Amino acid sequence: TTAxxxxxxxxxxxxxxxxxxxxxxxxxxxxxxxxxxxxxxAENSFGLNSFxxxxxxxxxxxxxxxxxxxxxxxxxxxxxxxxxxFKTNDEDVYVSGPATIDVSVPLNPQLRMQRGxxxxxxxxxxxxxxxxDQPTEFHMVLPAQTYKGGFTLTINTSTGSMTKSTTxxxxxxxxxxxxxxxxxxxxxxx
Length: 190
What we know:
The chain is mainly β. It contains no helices and 19 strands.
């Protein structure tokens, strides 16, 4: 809930982005960044360095605000999951690549994907084993926005893949965890 860090700077206000390695620059009230196209699985949470947060303050004490949403995918089965690929169904809805965060209202930062970014993000799972009697949860960090026409998930294992899709609009809000109904992983073997 709290952390201490050291840094150097001068001026009347501070703007901070976590994780810092995705930052590209700051111009006025707009941070440019690059949302990664790959995330790493973490048990019971999203992966390290995958959830962008920003802080704006005129003091050295910073209060970070989330800029994205989390999609929680619960699966049962007997397979080992290599990766889960999220892809938007609308060609004008993007989830990774170039983006900006408007911090003009510090308590409500707005992340916007740039035109021509990617419609896909992959959660690398490195063989996470499913159980038949208890759901395993996978968390994907996604931009808070309306997913017009829904999205498609492709679940990949070493023995095949499965596709799960929705065609209805889905709204993911900032700081929200959106749960998908638990499903059993049944693969298109081959």
